[in-house]
Write a structure and sequence with these properties.
single chain; alpha/beta; Rossmann fold; 9 helices; 23% strand
């Protein structure tokens, strides 16, 4: 693991690293904010998953999360959104909604994606193990959140691994990838045509199966241009109502899909997680 940058921020340190991923078979970058409390002992770890086309740096540079993370003493880990590099396959038409920058946080089983596109294992196992072994972090206090494709990733990873995460939140998540164009393209290519295999990566389906509920917060902007076709928040509301899953789902009037929306509410999300990471 090679440290690339170390930038002071709100009394803490914004770090960026490069390492070789055995899971993804390529070099990867990730960012990590350590709050000032990390100088005196291990702190909770909050993992952020970004959306389509993003890298590990978008959230770090645009969301303004460092202030709240420093206030509440929480580290924020931001991985990249897909494998990258020479030999890593991309969308054949170079579309932005699949391939590089669009790993969808699944373990691909189909060729040519299976060798590299294993973001589920990378986020759940390899990357946390790497940072927990080298940084002042408390692995027993972890939570996860994300945006859009990353909101999908955060919700599905948390619902499948409630013993790992103490809470989960999302901005503008893709809640039913089995029922939207982005998800159908990604899951169909990464996992194959058998839709029964997609259910393990569909938040609405996982909500219906959940036996160990987690504290959950979801914010969705009412002016989000992707809401009706791609994000489909009403399906999540219906799944929670049908199954009795308690979640706070807020429609934020006039907000869109951008980082202006995320920056407006990220402090509340970090405070939400800090409350459950005691």
């Amino acid at each position: 693991m090679e440290q690339l940058t170390d930038t002071r921020s709100f009394g803490g340190r914004q770090l960026r690293f490069q390492h070789h991923s055995e899971v993804l078979s390529c070099a990867m970058h990730f960012s990590l904010f350590l709050p000032p409390q990390a100088e005196t002992g291990p702190v909770p770890l909050l993992t952020w998953l970004s959306g389509l086309t993003c890298t590990d740096e978008n959230f770090v540079q645009k969301a303004g999360a460092q202030r709240a993370a420093a206030q509440y003493g929480v580290a924020v880990l931001a991985p990249d959104t897909s494998p990258r590099g020479e030999g890593v396959p991309d969308d054949p038409q170079a579309a932005w909604d699949f391939g590089l920058g669009a790993g969808f946080y699944v373990n691909a089983t189909e060729e040519p994606w299976a060798a590299n596109y294993r973001m589920y294992d990378y986020v759940l196992e390899e990357l946390p193990a790497l940072v927990l072994a080298s940084q002042p972090l408390d692995g027993h206090r972890q939570a996860i959140f994300g945006h859009s494709m990353g909101g999908h990733g955060a919700l599905t990873l948390a619902l499948r691994n409630p013993q790992r995460y103490g809470s989960v939140s999302a901005f503008s998540p893709i809640v039913a990838p089995s029922q939207c164009p982005w998800g159908e393209k990604a899951l169909g290519n990464y996992l194959g045509a058998d839709r029964s295999r997609w259910a393990e990566h569909d938040t609405c389906e996982l909500i219906r199966r959940a036996t160990q509920p987690l504290p959950m917060l979801v914010d969705q902007g009412s002016a989000d241009g992707f809401l009706e076709e791609q994000l489909r928040t009403p399906l999540l509301q219906a799944a929670c109502a049908e199954s009795g899953y308690e979640a706070t789902i807020r429609m934020q009037d006039g907000y869109d899909h951008s980082y202006f929306f995320i920056a407006s509410f990220v402090d509340e999300h970090i405070a939400f997680h800090a409350k459950h990471l005691v």
